[in-house]
Amino acid sequence: MDRSFEDLVAEAEAVDVDGWDFSWLEGRATEERPPWGYSRMLAEHLARADASLDVQTGGGEVLAEAPVVPRLAVATESFPPNLAKATALLHPRGVAVVAAPDGSPLPFADGAFDLVTSRHPISLRWEEITRVLRPGGTYLAQHVGPASVLELTEFFLGPRPEARRDRRPDDEAAAARAAGLEVAEVRTARLRVEIHDVGAVVYLLRKLVWWVPGFTVAAYRDRLRDLHELVERDGPFVTHSTRHLIRAHRPA
């Protein structure tokens, strides 16, 4: 039996959205995975590193998947609920979790790490990445690309042409080079996302607050109902995420 709009929305409004665990969406939304396998690459690099830094780690879920971490492993995060989750998850692995505002100078000495990583950072200061890397050190990250989930964002906000110009991988690679890094690899992917009910939309917009800034169910109830009726009539709402992998080195 199909669930009502009110039931789906109420359930999604009540669920905890802290951290980067998306298991609540199982059976409700799907997203293709990038072909390069970031978690596998991260694990391989961590196994070879002596000192690592994971920037904007979220709840620490991705870093915690690695079978081995270096003798010195640190992660930063800015959002207090995520800090608590990351601390609980990573401290038993020997990873120190440090509070650091997004986009601020990193609170570490020059050349402190031979590996800096990040999965879906909100903002980066490339000169800070370069500064904390040792000569010969590596930056490995998976970034969100331009126009990610734009179909969903525009459903709520209308046309957003500026979103097609933000987070372009060629611009980010140029910024990395300008900060003194040698860019070894940039790979891009456009990935199909299917959303099967309006509750999944509410959950995602509560969790990923930059998709529809200022989102609340009360403010967007009419548009949510439109989406619910669209999915009931036509099937899953389809949008597309964009990702790019960047691997760079500080010159030795």
From TrEMBL:
Residues 53-140 form the Methyltransferase type domain. One of its GO terms (biological process) is methylation. Pfam families: Methyltransf_11. InterPro entries: 23S_rRNA_MeTrnsfrase_RlmA (IPR052939), Methyltransf_11 (IPR013216), SAM-dependent_MTases_sf (IPR029063). It comes from the Bacteria. CDD domains: AdoMet_MTases. Keywords: Methyltransferase, Transferase. GO terms for molecular function: S-adenosylmethionine-dependent methyltransferase activity. This is Methyltransferase family protein.
